[in-house]
Specification:
The chain is an alpha/beta fold. It contains five helices and eight strands, in the order βαββββαβββααα.
Length: 161
Amino acid sequence: MSKIVPCIWYDGGAEEAARFYVTLLPDSRIVRVAHTPVDTPGNKAGDVITVEWDLAGQRFLGLNGGPIFPQTEAVSFQIATDDQAETDRLWDAIVGNGGQESACGWCKDRWGVNWQITPRRLTELVAHPDAAVAGKAMEAMMTMRKIDIAALDGAVAGTGA
């Protein structure tokens, strides 16, 4: 197990969220569901308090902590995708399960957790050593919600496809 494990605070629903997340990527599983043995400010004895899961080999902890600390865009989880089909599948799964679209490949799941569905091609283009290529890719990305790899390649080629 990793020495550092991101803990995501939920206003309830940590187990439901974790069960959804592990369907998104291979090498993912629920590791442990813990119930609080006593009443806490946000939970009654027996309620799910924490959920541990592995998502593509990365360990996470979900804590049902209540409404005190809502999610913000200050923390997001980026998934590097290999092609448009994977980008579309993940975007559609998160947005289509009660989530919300945002800009530049960002979306929010129904629990308020922010995700970046980022094609590797986008990362490659915006880090391109030719500043003109990187600039065209960045400008194209800024107009998108879900990233469209063909449109990025078209913008870089000058066709704006």
